[in-house]
Write the structure tokens for this entry.
Amino acid sequence: MSVTIGTDTRSPRRHAGTGRRSASVAIPLLLAALAATAIVALTVGAAGIPLSRLPTALGLAGNTTTDAVTARDQLVLWSIRIPRIAATAMVGGLLAAAGAIMQGLFRNPLADPALVGVSSGGALAAASAIVFTDSRFGEAFRFLQTELLPLAAFAGSLATTAILYGISSRAGRTSIAIFLLAGVAITAIANAGIGLLVFIADDRQLRDITFWLLGSMSGATWTKAAVLAPILIIGLAACTLIARGLDLLVLGEADAFHGGVDVERLKRISIVMVSAMTGVAVSVSGVIGFVGIVVPHLLRLIIGPAHRLLLPASVLLGAILMVGADTLARTIVAPAEMPIGILTAAVGAPVFLGILLRQRGLTVL
Amino acid sequence: MSAVIEARSLGKRAGRATLLDGVGLTVAAGEMVAIIGPNGAGKSTLLRLLSGDLRPSEGEVRLNQRDISSFTPRELAARRAMLSQHINVTFPFTVEEIVLMGAGDRSMRDAGPLVEAALDEVGLSHFRARQLPTLSGGEQQRTHFARVLVQLACGEAAHGPGLLLLDEPTSSLDLRHQIDLVEAARRRAAGGTAVIAILHDLNLAIRFADRLVVLNGGKLAADGPRADVVTRETIRDIFEIDAVVHRGDDGVPYVLPQSMRAVMPHLSPTGRGRIA
């Protein structure tokens, strides 16, 4: 094989020197973009609240007189829109960060909790919980349904991730091909289980289960936002703990170890985090695909793959994209609402294909 | 001189296969050792055992007079650096980012001079902003060597002379960069580092190391000064080829392999080194 090493044969795009300079401004920029997206999301909806009325409704303006319009605005904002936007942003952040961690763990930009069945595993467990607590046997637990659902989704995600890792790792090495194929198989098994539950479910249960499968933020409440927040905060704290380890893991497990990383500990923390983050997000929103692939991929192109910046930036961009997608989901077919999972898949799948094509290009090089 | 690393009757089994059997090896500070031997002789296994990455089935490895399994990965990384043979980086890290990984938690602000020096030493300063997956195999290997040099330098700054392990570090390099790498390793040894390298190029191994360790079939076949180890007989026994061993003006031997058939046309293809 003849290899030409002259720099002139390579595209100038690969000289990535300038792209990384944006790293120091990435977080402030993303924060600003999140704020802007949130403001748009606050004003748009079934009950429109023009930008001019927003400060008064939020209680930021000096005007203390509360007329009927302001009262209605406040009700819409504080009991519907703000909790929904907060929950949506956190779900987006959790899904994107979980994707970035999983990709780091498996050294593969195509790894994603939704793609390899971790979300499906969570959804299967959640659907089981719905049907079980509604059945004669689970009657005693019915009052616990609200608490049981996130726990079941988390347990389902954790079990799926552990099974995946067990199948694809042998003697300290993880086979990416087996991992992705096993993910396809596990997704199929989980979907078969969900199919069975759909078959035996009654109409009301069926509606609840469908919610898990298509993904929607319409059920977002302050309570759900309160469940998401601690996981997100713990997740962000843990991100600083594992960022360097995930960087070195790109060299392979043996070389990460040579570089001083406790690889087994890193894998354990990462798996628990991915499961917890995906599980809790799935428990609130149902299965939402591709956020975990698209967000980290876009960010790697712009700010580089170093996890110290990639993980927090993924949380922010994930939040932005999800809030944007949810705003779209609740307006384009108003007064009805489109399941957000349909939107993220419609945008995400082509991006996923794009990554595949780009990878093929790199292999040919 | 004190032993930096010491392996006692080291054995490694994988299933029914014996990869390594009863190997003993002691390397002192400032010593340069090349491990040679045919494919499947157990060279990489030995190196991975010495690095603490693999646990032995029998025997023990002691680093600075302490059982190597008692070190945490971080403590170990500060005392020994290892360059593996095949490293495939999937994410678009730049050359500079990869080299900085050798510096542990230090940022570019703290470790900048070390990174600069290492990049300069491997001749890749001009590629610092390039993404690693876009470089040639040899350039990638040199990048990882620079990373390992940074790790070694950081560890030695804190704990004194360390251990440098190199698994076929020259496999993807052109002639000039093979010499460059070997000389860089020699400089480390001159500064007190214990260097152990697996090398396939016999002449490079002879040039590079004062002491050669020969492995064959998982066992230690020879261990000694290059002039003693490199003989026509050893090479015939270990590599099953006929070779002419010359001595240079400086007394350092060099090996000229001969075609088996040209030299010994009576040798049957199944004869495997036996002289009829």
